[in-house]
Write a structure and sequence with these properties.
Distance between the termini of chain A: 66 Å
Structural class of chain A: alpha+beta
Radius of gyration of chain B: 23 Å
Largest sheet of chain A: 6 strands, antiparallel
Strand content of chain B: 25-35%
Oligomer: heterodimer
Order of helices and strands of chain B: HEHEEEEEEHH
Number of strands of chain A: 11
Helix content of chain A: 55-70%
Radius of gyration of chain A: 27 Å
Distance between the termini of chain B: 67 Å
Helix content of chain B: 25-40%
Shape of chain B: elongated
Chain lengths: ~650, ~170
């Protein structure tokens, strides 16, 4: 009964989405406010019905109703409650339902908080949003219905893929989807602007916070996924340049570019056409990511099932939306008035440089991800493009961008002073040189690249700090004045500084982890001691334990440093009886930002277990960096100027006056 | 600067960055791309020793030998040919005899494939895609690998997981 109700609610949501995609547009053509207002009520009703449908699926999973194919295939009555809930989106059908739920959520938010938007713009935005929604409702109902029944219900389910039975599943997919799908708002705004043939600074004021929200979630979602892979897969790697990871990195890069170009558009009313294009591209890359992950063209832990009809359907959605929006862009973009001019050396110029490098880096990831697929289709050759390719292309493009990052906020709008900016960055430059010199001396004979890269990261962090110091007049006047000025600084300025510093922090983590990672791989018997990076790890013994739906073998390690006992670590290997598969649960010991990492392998006939031990210096910075970036994003989002929303007419007029 | 000069500066700068990116991509394409082969393709193509590639196939049942200090050897077969593989390290959780595997490495002078990475990202109903395609091409594909059972078409397959595993093809 619940399943049928959920199914029915989803069909109703589709019907509402179809109304929402047509009636408001008609209303805008006829200048009929009543018809345009239909968008608002349908968007809210749609959210209600999708939420009901999603709640139905959650209920079915929690109550272990194995008469449902989806529950039978992915659940087990003995599974802990949290994994029964997260298991809802730990499979293809459920995760698509989560996708559309989030899409409806964003549509509902625009409907609820969009009262200060021009009526026709809101009608268009919500209509475009409903086009996307209708396509994905159809996709779910036709090819991936989660509410299908089994004629003769089995007694027990087949359990969720053990790798997914982790708290990471509760956080990573919802976060990632909030990011992916959040970019649909800027897409809808862009398409609406193209349809209306009108765009102004008010438009950018509206788009920027939504893009920022999506970007914050995507940043956290990617970081969370990376940390999950790091501790769950037992290889100690945190980024594999796997096509599925690239699928989330591409919208992130494009979204980061969009965030910066929207600033130029909001403040200076320039780069309009480019911002529209970026909005379209960012969401197109999100759709491409959905296609790559959900169609089964790639094999990875994310591809839950392969079914050719699904792939073809998503490919069709992809072609219609990307092709359609780009055609609309080609047709209408020239109608948009060009905005203010600026000198190449200026804040705008720096943001253009940022966009140039980010989109180019995104393009190299795109080529590296799709080239193998294209080659296979065209020639039948199978190749793999892995880390070496991206190290040779992505990294050289990202490094110059990092050098430019501290300069951007120090340049003035319209016409900047590069020499002045360089002077104000002297302290940051000196800090970087000291860092390079110290590391060079400390790691004599080691890699020359690592000290330079860390120096660059220090430059970025110190550059962000000196921007703050500059603005508050720290070191130049009494500390009280500086404190007062610091409180008066716009939150967006603080946000910029935190986000930029986060990039530097992540870079330090990446360089330290890849350069000074030490590992020990060998077989150990109880009583054996492994030495790694000054730590002594003694295998005390091995024990067995019965979990709720698995058996596990636990290795007990005693860790000591310089003979002093420190802590115990208990890595384990879990065997899931229902699926007959096993997972490795690594043990982590955090020391500051560094970690010790143990994962277990197979047991030999003589009782020795294969053990993999890593010492990863400063590895946690890799994830603290993105957290800092997201925190900067949140600060920026809380800025008063952004919350004001659409500016008053007088302000809009001022924004519309072209510079020069 | 005039409007035109400014625009030219921007376009010139963009083209320069794009050219650098294109050069980087082409350079990386030449050096860092790894081809996929099955043992039969290796025998056919005479891949020279030292050239890196990905080897895929099924782990020959009974061929797995564990040596000292985590050294393992096994055979990878695709129905018409088999190739000995040597690896040192911990095999992935899902590595099994008789199941699909993808290894990355190079042939040594004696014709043994020295693997530095072994991947086995699959569960009991699932195979690495390259391996599945290669086996299909050579006619060694059994329909029950990776097939998605249709529960309603075959009510007999509802007694439990063990029977579903032998499910029917689509």
């Amino acid at each position: 009964m619940i399943a049928e109700a959920g199914h029915y609610a989803l069909v109703l949501a589709l019907a509402l989405a179809l109304i929402q995609s047509t009636v408001p547009i008609l209303g805008a053509r006829l200048h009929d406010p009543a018809l345009m207002n239909v968008a608002r009520s349908t968007a809210l009703a749609q959210l209600l019905f999708v939420a009901a449908s999603f709640a139905a699926l959650v209920t079915l999973h929690v109550t272990s109703d194995f008469s449902l194919v989806n529950v039978f295939e992915n659940s087990h009555s003995q599974k802990p409650l949290i994994y029964k809930i997260t298991g809802v989106w730990g499979n293809h059908e459920g995760s698509m339902l989560l996708w559309v739920s989030i899409l409806a959520l964003f549509g509902g938010l625009v409907a609820a908080f969009g009262n200060n938007l021009p009526l026709s713009l809101r009608a268009h935005v919500l209509a475009v949003q409903a086009w996307v929604a209708s396509a994905f409702y159809l996709f779910i109902l036709i090819t991936s219905n989660p509410f299908l029944r089994i004629a003769n219900p089995p007694i027990e389910g087949r359990d969720l893929n053990p790798v997914l039975q982790d708290i990471g599943l509760a956080v990573h997919p919802p976060m990632l989807y909030l990011g992916y799908v959040g970019f649909s708002i800027s897409f809808s705004f862009a398409v609406a602007a193209l349809i209306e043939g009108r765009i102004d600074a008010a438009w950018a004021r509206w788009v920027r916070p939504w893009t920022l929200v999506a970007w914050i979630f995507l940043t956290l979602g990617i970081a969370m996924g990376s940390y999950w892979a790091y501790y769950e897969l037992g290889w100690g790697g945190w980024w594999f340049w796997d096509p599925v990871e690239n699928a989330s990195l591409m919208p992130w890069l494009a979204g980061t570019a969009l965030l910066h170009s929207a600033v130029v558009m909001e403040k200076r009313n320039a780069l309009k056409v480019w911002t529209i294009l970026l909005s379209i591209l960012t969401f197109s890359l999100s759709l491409l990511g959905t296609f790559l992950v959900r169609s089964g063209v790639l094999t990875s832990v994310h591809a839950f099932a392969t079914d050719p009809t699904r792939g073809v359907f998503i490919l069709l959605i992809l072609c219609i939306f990307i092709g359609g929006s780009l055609s609309l862009y080609a047709w209408r973009a020239s109608a948009l008035k060009q905005g203010g001019l600026f000198a190449p050396i200026s804040r705008e110029g720096a943001l253009v440089l940022n966009n140039l490098f980010l989109t180019t880096a995104c393009a190299t990831v795109f080529i590296g991800t799709l080239y193998p697929l294209a080659l296979e289709v065209l020639t039948g050759d199978k190749i793999s493009v892995g880390a070496p390719f991206f190290n040779l292309t992505f990294a050289p493009l990202f490094l110059p961008l990092m050098i430019a990052v501290p300069f951007g906020p120090l340049l003035a709008w319209k016409r900047g002073d590069l020499l002045g900016a360089a002077q104000r960055l002297t302290a940051a430059g000196i800090a970087a040189l000291i860092a390079i010199a110290v590391l060079w001396a400390w790691t004599r004979g080691g890699s020359a690249f690592a000290p330079l890269a860390i120096g660059l990261a220090v430059f970025v962090i110190a550059g962000a700090l000196s921007d703050l110091a500059e603005r508050t007049g720290l070191f130049r006047g009494p500390i009280g004045t500086a404190m007062r000025r610091a409180r008066g600084l716009p939150r967006a300025t603080w946000g910029t500084a935190f986000a930029h510093a986060g990039v530097g922090v992540a870079l330090i983590g990446i360089v330290c982890e890849t350069t000074w990672n030490s590992e020990y791989i060998g077989s150990m018997k109880p009583g054996d001691v492994a030495d790694i990076a000054g730590y002594e790890l003694k295998l005390d013994g091995v024990s067995q334990r019965q979990g709720p739906n698995f058996r596990e073998m636990i290795g007990q390690f005693a860790v000591s440093l310089d003979g002093k006992p420190l802590s115990a670590m208990t890595p384990s290997k879990r065997n899931f009886t229902t699926r007959g598969s096993s997972t490795t649960e690594a043990a982590l010991l955090t020391r500051g930002a560094s970690q010790l990492y143990i994962s277990l392998g197979d047991t030999n006939a003589d009782g020795a277990i294969a053990v993999r031990i890593y010492h990863k210096p400063l590895v946690l910075l890799i994830w603290w960096g993105p957290v800092l970036m997201a925190f900067g994003g949140m600060l920026s989002l809380s800025d008063r100027r952004l919350r004001v929303g659409a500016p008053k007419p007088a302000k809009a007029l001022r924004g519309l006056q072209a510079a020069e | 600067m005039t409007r035109k000069q400014r625009r030219l500066t921007m376009i010139g700068g963009s083209l320069a960055v794009l050219a650098v990116a294109a050069a980087l991509v082409l350079n990386a394409m030449r050096d860092s791309i790894v081809f996929f082969s099955t043992p039969a393709m290796v025998a056919e193509k005479h891949i020279q020793a030292g050239k890196r590639f990905r080897l895929g196939g099924l782990v020959q049942p009974g061929s797995l030998v564990r040596g000292d200090n985590l050294a393992v050897t096994f055979q990878v077969a695709d129905g018409s040919a088999a190739l000995p593989v040597a690896y040192k390290g911990i095999l992935p959780d899902l590595f099994r005899e008789g199941q699909g595997v993808v290894a990355e490495g190079a042939l040594d002078a004696s014709g043994v494939f020295k693997a530095d990475t072994v991947l086995a990202k699959h569960d009991e109903t699932y195979m690495p895609k390259e391996v599945a395609d290669a086996l299909k091409k050579q006619g060694h594909w059994k329909d029950d690998y990776g097939a998605k059972p249709d529960y309603n078409a075959k009510p007999a397959a509802t007694q439990g997981a063990s029977q579903v595993k032998q499910g029917v093809s689509q």
